[in-house]
């Protein structure tokens, strides 16, 4: 078979691997499949969102590749995804970040030649950075000629990107997905996947995974340690009727989920993947034998080396929790060949 060359960097966004986990729950009599979004070129599921929002805006004539300036608030994966796509299209990009942005993400943004605007003070009323960042975005948009604000929290091209994520899963599994576990932040991934499931009349139970302290499903706000999933403002894209059940996961359980994944599957995953794993492990006794369960892993663990995978950080935040993820009973995988 002759493989055609892909069209530049956007050509390698999506089409991420779906792999089966055999060791995370060895007694489980169903299949556990995980969609590994870290294999996008910018390292996360947000590459899909960034590409979809920018292409959608170019097609709609809202963004002029010759002179527009893209301005967005993100301290994490979307910022990196947008920085990458803006560089590809030769667009100027101003990323509004806050003091919680990791030095690694800052370095990545700068490496892609994004301009960085730092918000140093959280919102006075809520104590959260997100409202303060959004305020700064609005000021910059008003002051910058030809500014374009993708607004990931309300842009329909955000969920549209994830209809494709779900389509890839659908095709890989020949249509049989009994359970889907996905985390929520902007609600883009969940909304796109759930809309695809509805449109194609798939018989899939949709489990949303949110952080304790996030307000998306009307829970009381509380401080959260891990970036990625959860939100301090309910995103306009939210439609909770698309979700059959929601599971709230603590920072501690998310970290334990991540550590178990490394221990049992050698998968270094991000915090929301740990949360999704913890939710699945807590739920699995309710799943009938022979089911296909799909978990979406939005990013990899290399952006969390100084938190989730740093023993000192974990000890400081949670105490000695090694007993929660280390186990003597774990059997290593047989070596083939
Ligand atoms: C690591 C990670 N997990 C989960 C999410 C939530 O995805 P969504 O915004 O599509 O709801 C995000 C969003 O930024 C993320 O970066």
From TrEMBL:
Q: Which EC number applies?
A: 2.5.1.140
Q: Which GO terms describe its molecular function?
A: transferase activity, transferring alkyl or aryl (other than methyl) groups
Q: Does the keyword Disulfide bond apply?
A: no
Q: Which cofactor does it need?
A: pyridoxal 5'-phosphate
Q: Which residue ranges does the record assign to the Tryptophan synthase beta chain-like PALP domain?
A: 12-299
Q: List the Pfam families hit by this protein, alphabetically.
A: PALP
Domain of life assignment: Bacteria
Q: One of this protein's GO BP terms? A: cysteine biosynthetic process from serine
Tell me which UniProt keywords the record has, alphabetically: Pyridoxal phosphate, Transferase
Q: Does the keyword Iron apply?
A: no
Part of which pathway? Siderophore biosynthesis
Tell me which family the UniProt entry assigns to this protein: Belongs to the cysteine synthase/cystathionine beta-synthase family. SbnA subfamily.
Explain the purpose of this protein: Catalyzes the synthesis of N-((2S)-2-amino-2-carboxyethyl)-L-glutamate (ACEGA) from O-phospho-L-serine and L-glutamate.
Q: Which NCBIfam families match?
A: PLP_SbnA_fam
Q: How does it assemble?
A: Homodimer.
Q: What is this protein called?
A: N-(2-amino-2-carboxyethyl)-L-glutamate synthase
State the organism named in the record. Kitasatospora gansuensis
Source species taxonomy: Bacteria, Bacillati, Actinomycetota, Actinomycetes, Kitasatosporales
